[in-house]
Amino acid sequence: AVDSDNIAKTTLPDKIWTSYDDEEKKHWLTVQKNSLHQRFLLQDNLLPAWHGNRKSLPERIHLSVDAMIRAIDRLEIQQQQLQHHERHGGGK
After folding, report:
1. In the chain, how many H helices and how many E strands?
2. φ/ψ (deg, to 5) at 36
3. Helices (DSSP H) in 4-88: which residue ranges?
4. CA–CA separation, 92 vs 87, rounded Å?
5. CA triple 36-9-82, angle to 5 deg
6. Are strands 15-21 and 36-44 parallel, antiparallel or unpaired?
7. In angstroms, rounded to a whole number, what is the distance separating the alpha carbons of residues 43 and 28?
8. pLDDT digits (tens), the chain, 92 positions
9. How is the beta sheet containing 36-44 ordered, strand by strand?
10. Residue 11: its pLDDT value, please?
11. Which of 31, 42, 50, 67 could make an S-S bridge to 27, C-beta 3.0–4.6 Å?
12. Which pLDDT does position 2 carry in this prediction?
């Protein structure tokens, strides 16, 4: 049997949240999953509204969420490869 209380003490919970940095005036999407802790910019309020060829807010959010999903997918693939390697004794 697995001791779920023991696991909870040794691993951080998976989390996804948004936050606002008042000093930088930026909105962030943050993910914490195992060893992955990464932020993705949603909105930079210091940039003028007509800055360059900026995408619309929904497009930027979509791109940030996609980037977060790709980061999580990469982490899960790395973990699967490591588990496979450990199960097979690291041999070829």
Report:
1. 2, 3
2. -85, 125
3. 4-10, 57-87
4. 12
5. 45
6. unpaired
7. 7
8. 434 444 444 566 899 999 999 999 999 999 999 888 999 999 888 887 666 666 788 898 899 999 999 999 999 999 899 888 888 876 55
9. 15-21, 26-33, 36-44
10. 63
11. 42
12. 39
Radius of gyration of the chain (CA): 18
CB 83 within 8 A of CB 76: no
| SS3 assignment, position 61 | helix
Owner of token pair 């989390």: 15
Residue 31 CA to residue 16 CA, distance in Å, equals 4
Element (DSSP H or E) covering residue 54: none
Whether 27 and 43 have beta carbons less than 8 Å apart is answered as yes
DSSP letter (8 states) at residue 69:
H
